[in-house]
Amino acid sequence: MKILVIEDDRRIASFLERGLAAEGYHVAVENDGRDGLERARAEAYDLIIVDRTLPYVDGLEICRLLRAEKHPAMLMMLTARASLEDRIEGLRGGADDYLAKPFAFDELLARIFALGRRREAASHESVLSAGPLKLDPASHQVSRDGMPVTLTPREFDLLRYLMKNAGRVVSRERLLNSVWQLGYDPGTKIVDVYVRYLRAKIDVSGADSLIQTVRGVGYMIAAGPSRNTP
After folding, report:
1. Residue 74 forms beta bridges with which residues?
2. Least packed by Cβ within 10 Å: which of 91, 153, 200, 223?
């Protein structure tokens, strides 16, 4: 696995470079956001570990830019900003994982392994279908009636989970745990917000919504068109 570390604290960057290299990873390091972003765009990496607070371009903006450009690398945000609001903002900004400083190196390794396992599993998943929708986990492509639909990484993960459970009601708690890796309800309406984002992209004017709301429980995507719900 090729890893790019974008970290302005040179002690941490050196520690990560030596530690990850000792584990067999191919590691490159940049110490500011501008150079890190340029390198991420110029070379192919499997994982980019990025600090949240960086000179020139901060880590959150790097995640947003790379996701907007459909960069295929996994993104892990490594930061001292550890509040729930910061974590949610980082995940919504495109990070696949969010690890707070100070961190245990063994936990970092475990998270890298888990991210790699998720990517490998996705590459072997079959194409999913639900009514007019098709979703290819390997290529991260979605279409409705053959027309491409552009989704953010989090929207894609949410839609994939709903489509894997097509015909079954999925609770908000399950979605928080499986899509956002939150083991509890943070008191936000993040699931409802992202369902609204998805509906705006996969539904068409005048047609029934493909995602049903089951009040007090959660959401369900049907195998075929469903009743329009608020």
Report:
1. 47
2. 200
Query: Which has the closest alpha carbon to 157: 169, 165, 148?
Result: 165
Sheet holding 141-144, edge to edge: 128-130, 133-136, 141-144, 147-149
Helix (H/G/I), strand (E/B), else coil: 131? coil
Q: Where are the beta strands (DSSP E) in the chain?
A: 2-6, 26-30, 47-51, 74-79, 97-100, 128-130, 133-136, 141-144, 147-149, 170-171, 211-214, 218-221
Tokens 């501008």 belong to residue: 34
Q: Which pair of tokens denotes residue 37?
A: 């972003």
Dihedral sign (CA 43, 46, 49, 53): positive
Work out the pLDDT band at 163, boundaries 50, 70, 90: very high
How deeply is 202 buried, as exposed, middle or buried, from its count of CB atoms within 10 A (0-12, 13-18, 19+)? buried
Q: In what order do the strands lie in the sheet with 97-100?
A: 26-30, 2-6, 47-51, 74-79, 97-100
Q: What is the pLDDT of residues 49-102, one digit of tens each?
A: 999 889 999 989 998 898 888 788 889 988 887 777 777 787 777 888 888 888
Q: Which residue has the tokens 């990070």?
A: 95
pTM higher than 0.70:
no
Return the closest-CA partner of residue 6 out of 67, 57, 64.
Answer: 57
Instruction: Kindly report which listed range (6-15, 111-120, 159-168) carries the lowest average pLDDT score.
Output: 111-120
